[in-house]
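call fold(seq) -> C-alpha cells
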Amino acid sequence: MKHDMVRSELDSVDLRLAARLSALRAEHGWSLGELAERSGVSKSTLSRAERAEISPTASLLNRLCGVYGRTMSQLLSEVEAEPAPLVRGAEQTVWEDAASGFVRRSVSPPHPGLRAELVEGRLAAGADISYDRPPVPGLEQHIWVLAGALDITAQGVDHHLDTGDCLRLRIWGPTRFRCPGPDAARYALVVVLP
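ret:
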C-alpha cells in the first residue's frame, strides 16, 4: 500500500511537471522545433514529456533547465504550491528517474529570495548519470556522501567520495555521477546560485 502511495505521488509530480514544461515553452513563444534546436533534445521526446507520456530523465531535465536558465530544484519547485518555510519530511517533493536509478528529494526547496537549497540524492549501485552542462554556469555545489560511495567527474577531474567525504566545486561544464557499489549511495547536495 505504501509503495502505491509513493507511486501515485510520483505520477502526480510527473503530470504537473509535464504541464510546467509545456507552459515554459509557451511563455518563450517557442515551437517544439525551436526548443529541440536550443536543447539538443528531439521534438518527439519533448512532445512526449510535455504530454506526460514519459517521465523525463535527469539528463533531459538538466538540458531543459539550461535552456530555461533554472536549476532542477527551481523547476521542480515551480510544480509545487506556494513554498513553505518549514517542509515536513513527508511533504518533501520526491522525483525519480527510474531509468537511471536516481531518486531526488527536495529537502529545502528553492525560494526566490534565497540562493541555496538542500537536496538528498540516492543512486542505485551501478547507476551512472551524465550532465552535458550545468543548468546555470558557475553553479556552486557541495556534495556530502551520507552512505555508500560516489564517483564524480567535473572539469575533467575524477573524484572518489566515501561515506563522510564532501566535495565542494563550481560547475562550468559536463559532470558525471556514478555509484560504484556494491551498495546504493545516499548524499546531501547543497546547491548555491552564483
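Residues 124 and 159 are 18 Å apart (CA to CA).
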